[in-house]
Amino acid sequence: MAILQWLPNLLLVLAMSSEDAAVNPMATGAEGEDLDYPMSEISDMTPRDLQILFDEASTNNRTELTKAEFLAFLLKTEIDMNKEESGAPPFTDLDSDGVITEDEILKELKTWTVEPKEELKRIRKLEQDKFRAADENGDKKLSGDELAFMYSPHPFHEGVLNVLTKSEFSIRDLNKDGKLTEEELWYDHIRPEDHDPHDGEEAAERSSVFKGLDDDGDSFISFTEMKDWESGEVYLKIAVDKIFDLCDADGNQKASYQELRVAWPMIDETGVALNIAGIFESVLLKVKGPQDKGLDLSHMEGDQLEDEYAVGVHGDNQDDLYPSEDEPIDDEDAEVLQDEYMDEHEDAVMAAEVNAGGESDHGFEDL
After folding, report:
1. 161, 121, 125, 128: which is closest to 142 by C-alpha?
2. What is the pTM of this model?
3. Is the model's pLDDT at 358 over the cut of 80?
4. SS3 per-residue string spanning 4-61
5. Which of 97, 163, 268, 281 has its Cα between 20 and 30 A from that of 342?
């Protein structure tokens, strides 16, 4: 049975790998391989890049990588990224001293306008509770790592994460039984009239996330399980599961470098690693330095983003592959383009998702 599950994907991966070899005979993994040749037309990931990522993620065994090792590597890297990128928000840091005081938080909260009023009250209390949890030394101000605890888009501080999860869990637990059904998890308490649990475009994705959260398989989400949603960890888990579904050819729940190398064209084609591409880029930047530039769309917007994305996918104009640093991307534009790309490659996606499940976005909406 296990062989039947992975055999179709393996055959498809091997077929794509053969196409790679036809274009570039050095990219087959044989002796003399060009380690800096991209493994697919979708991204600039090279065998050398993949080897770096594999070595960074593998801790106890340099020949095979477990799911637990891969997930721990992603979580640690993301936390490090959040610490480096978090700082005092200028709209809160009224005196621009790089420190957030309780008084500054209260002044900012007074400027917030949210409807209905009950929701505004909840959010204001949530922000105050998060502040107190992040203020580890109790001096009523946030500095250093405390700023990351408070403002990280994917909370990793246990106290802040507990506060956030408690608040979000309470508004979704409609019958107050201490657990969430799939419908409760996705219930829109702000605009309940717009809530449609059977939305065809999102139903598969939501179901995939719910299953990823439901660790004990009881068809409910507990408080502990929901913490994985608020922290964003569930989306990393889903990405790891999908990657292993495509590369674990021998079904031993481990991935060797060669298995990943052979499967990478398929991993790129199906987009299962899109949500963790930023983590990969961060690691490669630290290890290789800024001279190794990949396809970065994070500073682009509108029509130019669409044009550059098409270039990255189809390879029509490699000279214009990289955007300038001063053009910001709009998250909504990026999501639209990702959807368009996935529609264009629907056949490959459906083939891969026989075992991989629905696509997911990594992350959650910060109120």
Report:
1. 128
2. 0.67
3. no
4. HHHHHHHHHHHHHHHHHHHHCHHHCCCCCCCCCCCCCCCCCCCHHHHHHHHHHHCCCC
5. 281
